[in-house]
Design a protein that fits this description.
Number of helices: 9
Number of strands: 0
Structural class: mainly alpha
Order of helices and strands: HHHHHHHHH
Radius of gyration: 24 Å
Helix content: 55-70%
Largest sheet: none
Number of domains: 2
Strand content: under 5%
Distance between the termini: 42 Å
Shape: globular
């Protein structure tokens, strides 16, 4: 009995360890989201008091457009970053960076290299083994899903932003702005572009700094002793 219990415990721990990267970032995500809500409602209530209005509860703040416009504007910029990085690295290369393919391997690569169709092996996903629309879709499924998430979060940001902007306008006894008008206003594009530029800078820094700097044991870095010229090599 004790041996079975130990084996079950070991299997659970092994499963957690095998998924520890996603668990770690999931926990950090939830913790920061809660922290944003707690600090955000404090800032929001300071503005409420300054305007002579009643403070709101944490639950009311989390359900408000003020909270969700801040959340979604960060989500859409992150998914845009990954969408562009995933698609750009198909065709563009950077000599010396582990974030790049080898310089002479730009492009979609051969069916043999990608293990599709008749080149698929026993462990290949089902849609990788067949020709036609299923293979075409599955071959681009990562960018398609990332693009849909980006588009959805961008639309959510614009809708929440329009509501938050209109509420602020009404507090100042000015006319609210419909969603279509809000999309043309500086408030929307200021929120959007300040996030986009920071994401592009982060990716650029990772691509370039990883040419010359190392992090031992990380797949995002080359092996410590690798040449600066080594490209597409992960440690």
């Amino acid at each position: 009995m004790s041996g079975g219990s130990t084996g079950s415990s070991g299997g659970l721990l092994g499963g957690l360890r095998a998924s520890s990267l996603s668990i770690f970032f999931g926990v950090v995500f939830l913790a920061t989201l809660v922290g944003q809500a707690v600090s955000g409602v404090a800032v929001f209530n300071l503005d409420q008091k300054a305007a002579g209005l009643e403070p709101v509860t944490l639950g009311q703040y989390v359900a408000s457009s003020a909270f969700w416009v801040d959340v979604t504007e960060n989500w859409q910029s992150e998914f845009l970053q990954f969408l562009l990085f995933i698609t750009a690295t198909v065709w563009f290369v950077q000599r010396g960076s582990p974030e790049s393919k080898k310089v002479d391997e730009a492009g979609r690569e051969s069916d043999e290299d990608q293990k599709v169709g008749e080149h698929a092996d026993e462990g290949s996903p089902a849609w990788a083994k067949v020709r036609g629309w299923r293979l075409a879709v599955y071959s681009r499924s990562l960018s398609l899903v990332m693009g849909l998430i980006f588009l959805g979060s961008w639309l959510a940001q614009s809708a929440a932003g329009a509501v938050a902007f209109s509420e602020e306008q009404m507090r100042e006894l000015q006319d609210p702005a419909p969603w279509t008008e809000y999309l043309t206003l500086p408030d929307f594009w200021s929120r959007t572009l300040q996030n986009w530029q920071s994401e592009m800078l982060a990716v650029l820094s990772m691509v370039v700094l990883s040419i010359y700097l190392r992090e031992r044991g990380s797949p995002e870095s080359k092996p410590v002793g690798s040449s600066h010229e080594a490209t597409g090599v992960e440690g």
